[in-house]
Specification:
alpha+beta, BON domain-containing protein, BON_dom
């Protein structure tokens, strides 16, 4: 994810089981979380994505 459109993924944990992906951790902007989920949905074999990312703006 970190190579896609500048998305900082250093605080994102990706878990996968039987095609079900869960995103956990923190991102600085809502748009970053949405982009991470979009990227995950585009991976072959992924059947569902749960976006459990929290928003923590940079500097806070």
């Amino acid at each position: 994810m970190s190579r896609t459109m500048g998305l900082a993924a250093s605080h994102v944990i990706v878990r996968s089981e039987n095609g079900a992906v869960t995103l956990q951790g923190a991102v600085p902007k809502q748009a970053d979380g949405e982009k991470a989920a979009e990227i995950a949905r585009g991976v072959p074999g992924v059947v569902s994505v749960t976006n459990a990312l929290s928003i923590h703006p940079e500097g806070t």
